[in-house]
Design brief:
globular; alpha/beta; binds nicotinamide-adenine-dinucleotide; 7-stranded parallel sheet; two-stranded parallel ribbon
């Protein structure tokens, strides 16, 4: 009886964010690698709220369970502690491949692991996509342009990367990940089959219908031989927002934390180098840092049921963007995945500012008296960064909509709460 009462209590108290009902025909099985990280957890929220079945795979190197804990126990959600450098056998329709450290301190911490994640990890995910006939979207980066000589950066620019510099493990790792995507897309199926046969278990795949629950292992009935892998490549420019790691080490989080703590805002070099920042996603409805099941007070703009007047993505056959209101990077990723654009697409905010302007703006928004401190320039730090997003506008109908100050205010609110949370829980 006690157990029954507990279950009953649980069913009354356990609340998930609202999830749209999708018929089996429309519901997709979606894998998000790196789904417990900053971008991946917001993407997971959107996909779950849109009614899909989502499997998050993460090794928690920079990600946190807290970012997705509000979904744990939901029948459409699964969280797997797994390193993408090891093969994964699972049955899915789409793969958002985000697993990779993203900020310089985290990718420079273990450059060999960063390289393995972006090379072997991407090969593993492409191999999985090939076996189960899934479409794969690679979260690539503006870093493939290096310290660019073309401004703003268009997708046809080949980049200017130092292959032996401190950032190379990430920049070159992502460049080769892109190369792998297009090799898997273009290579004739019989050659890929041969490679697979010689590298894996030697068995040719057996054609068959996909079915839920099979593991997509080589040679399993779900290994469907087809044309090359369908790939999508998003070149993501600097993104910020709630759930960024406190020790992220990139300029937005550094400045906000320094301003909130009354420390000097550290600018590397003269501060005249430029960056353009996009917001991650507007509709966070769950707080991070509190109980998994405590919904944040939804504001008019965060209510999932209401149409967001600023939303630029209109559901259509082309974009496939669906109902849960969200914007900016996350919507761009979903629109790209569901589009027919297989070449790389820049996703970023073209509003460009100098680092010094950012420092002043954040100081003012926080209301901080912090000084600005100039330190020596970081090696290979790009001098200019600004996406050309004509392609995303034209092909996906996408552009960022959250004004910089509004996004910064939300991020400041989040970091303030995180500092309070750390102080109360001595969380590191
Ligand atoms: P993040 O560090 O918050 O998330 C990355 C996630 O991947 C983390 O949860 C981490 O634990 C996981 N991960 C790392 N290595 C893994 C491995 N070997 N196996 C399984 N999981 C692993 O970073 P983010 O900002 O959310 O970035 C997500 C993706 O977007 C990354 O691929 C990054 O390169 C790309 N990107 C991000 C930005 C940005 O500004 N945030 C810009 C360009 C590209």
């Amino acid at each position: 009886l006690r157990e029954k009462i507990r279950d009953l209590e649980k069913s009354f108290t356990q609340k998930y964010p609202p999830v749209k009902f999708l018929s089996e025909k429309d519901r997709k099985r979606i894998l998000v690698t790196g789904g417990a990280g900053f971008v991946g957890s917001h993407l997971t929220d959107k996909l779950m709220m849109d009614g899909h079945e989502v499997t998050v795979v993460d090794n928690f190197f920079t990600g946190r369970k807290r970012n997705v804990e509000h979904w744990i126990g939901h029948e459409n959600f699964e969280l797997i502690n797994h390193d993408v450098v090891e093969p994964l056998y699972i049955e899915v329709d789409q793969i958002y491949h985000l697993a990779s450290p993203a900020s310089p301190p985290s990718y420079m911490y273990n450059p060999i692991k960063t390289l393995k994640t972006n090379t072997i990890g991407t090969l593993n995910m492409l191999g999985l996509a090939k076996r189960v006939g899934a479409r794969l979207l690679l979260a690539s980066t503006s870093e493939v342009y290096g310290d660019p000589e073309v401004h703003p950066q268009t997708e046809d620019y080949w980049g200017h990367v130092n292959p032996i510099g401190p950032r190379a493990c990430y920049d070159e790792g992502k460049r080769v990940a892109e190369t792998m995507c297009y090799a898997y897309m273009k290579q004739p199926p019989d050659l890929i089959t041969e490679n697979r046969a010689s590298h894996q278990d030697g068995k040719a795949p057996v054609s068959g219908r996909k079915s839920r629950g099979t593991c997509g292992a080589p040679g399993s009935p779900s290994s469907v031989l087809q044309e090359g892998v369908e790939v999508r490549v998003a070149r993501i420019f600097n993104t910020f927002g709630p759930r960024m790691h406190m020790n992220d080490g990139r300029v937005v989080s550094n400045f906000i934390l320094q301003a909130l703590q009354g420390e000097p805002l550290t600018v590397y070099g003269s501060g005249s180098q430029t960056r353009a920042f996009q917001y991650v996603r507007t509709s966070e409805i769950y707080k991070v840092g509190n109980s998994a099941l405590s919904p944040a007070q939804p504001s008019a703009s965060t209510l999932p049921q209401k149409a967001d007047p600023r939303r630029h993505i209109i559901p259509s056959a082309n974009t496939g963007a669906s109902s849960a209101p969200s914007s900016d990077l996350v919507n761009g990723l979903v629109a790209l995945m569901n589009s027919n654009v297989s070449s790389p697409v820049n996703l970023g905010n073209p509003e460009e500012h100098t680092i010094l302007e950012f420092a002043e703006l954040i100081k003012n928004l926080v209301g901080s008296g912090s000084e600005i401190q100039f330190l020596s320039e970081a090696q290979d730090d790009p001098q200019k960064r600004k996406p050309d997003i004509k392609k995303a506008k034209l092909m996906l109908g996408w552009e960022p909509v959250v004004p910089l100050e509004e996004g910064l205010n939300k991020a400041i609110h989040y970091f303030r709460k995180e500092l309070e949370y750390q102080a109360n829980n001595q969380y590191i």
